[in-house]
Amino acid sequence: MSSAVEFVPRRNEDRGHANHGWLKTFHTFSFAGYQDYRFQKWGSLRVINEDRVAPGEGFGTHGHKEFEIFSFLVSGELEHRDSMGNKEVLKRGDIQLTSAGTGISHSEMQHKKSPLPVHFLQIWAIPRTSGLPPKYYNRHFTDEEKRDTLVPVVAPVGTKGVTEEREGSGPAPVQSNLHLFSTILSPGKKVTHNFLQSANGAKRKGYLHVIQTSGYNKGKATGSLVKVNSDLFLSEGDGAFAQGPQGAPITIENVGDTDAEVLLFDIE
Predict the structure, then answer these.
(1) How many other C-beta atoms lie within 10 A of the C-beta of residue 203?
(2) 91 CB contacts (<8 Å, ≥6 apart)?
(3) Opening angle at CA 43, ends 40 and 45, nearest 5
(4) N or C: which end of the chain has fewer CB within 10 A?
(5) How far is CA 43 from CA 35, 177, 204, 205, 268, in A?
(6) CA distance 53 to 61
(7) How many angstroms separate the CA atoms of 61 and 106, rounded?
(8) pLDDT per residue as tens digits for the range 102-111
(9) Pair 94, 145: CB distance under 8 Å
(10) First to last CA, the chain
(11) How far apart are CA 180 and CA 267, in angstroms?
(12) CA–CA distance, 2 with 16 (Å, rounded to integer)
């Protein structure tokens, strides 16, 4: 069996995009007014939205069910409120995961006490079991923890090191066969991830995303630059679908002159 990983890039300028004034958003997959039959989901991964919300604005109270919804904070402050009674202000390094289960309502607003827009990624996954009660989790990972290493920040319930505590250490528990790793790569540094094992030995799916940390850009990707394996180059806002056998390596190397913040999904 070949150990090669196949990649299909998803370039920044090709992502779905909308500028509503109060919200500047990119969609990796079909979402809201952006619909493309080629990009509906990838395994259990359904949504990657890279959002920037203006001061005093945000997503008012709305409902969800049967999705695993997590917010990955890049900069600014995001105020979360939900029908389970949770109220929290999320900051850089926070990951908030809502397992919507049978149904919740929530709001996500730029925190009014902060003068800056909030930049975060909203990620949805399809649960492997339906009809579960809704739950809320929060985890925090510092820049130092993620520096030049791949840190598991989300992992399936039942995985070693994953606890179902509202707040705690280790990855946030997701009810999907999906792992999420995060890294901040210094110039010249690289990390390698080997696809995890599948229960039935089937090929794994992956997705990489380079976060737009240097600023909003709806055109051709600029900013930090990484090389994936031997010949794929990604800049800020770029992503790539990956597929390969379990154990196959994915190497991410920062070949630019600034830090690169990268997310890597490993999906059964």
Answers:
(1) 15
(2) 73, 76, 77
(3) 65
(4) N
(5) 18, 9, 9, 7, 7
(6) 15
(7) 5
(8) 999 999 999 9
(9) no
(10) 18
(11) 9
(12) 33
Task: Give the total residue count for the chain.
Answer: 268
pLDDT in tens, the chain (268 residues): 456 999 999 999 999 999 999 999 999 999 999 999 999 999 999 999 999 999 999 999 999 999 999 999 999 999 999 999 999 999 999 999 999 999 999 999 999 889 999 999 999 999 999 999 999 999 999 999 999 999 999 999 999 999 999 999 999 999 999 999 999 999 999 999 999 998 888 899 999 999 999 999 999 999 999 999 989 999 999 999 999 999 999 999 999 999 999 999 999 9
CA 93, 107, 40, 74: dihedral to nearest 10 degrees?
-20
CA angle 2, 11, 69 (to 5 degrees): 85
Residue carrying the six token digits 């930090």? 224
Token pair 């995303």: residue? 209
Structure tokens at 251: 């190497």
CB-based burial, 6-31: b 16+ in 10 Å, e otherwise: ebeebebeebbbeeeeebbbbbbbbb
- Encoded tokens for 2: 């070949």
The 10s digit of each residue's pLDDT in 199-213 is: 888 899 999 999 999
Beta carbons within 8 Å of 222's beta carbon, 6+ residues apart: 214, 235, 236
CATH topology of domain 6-267: Jelly Rolls (2.60.120)
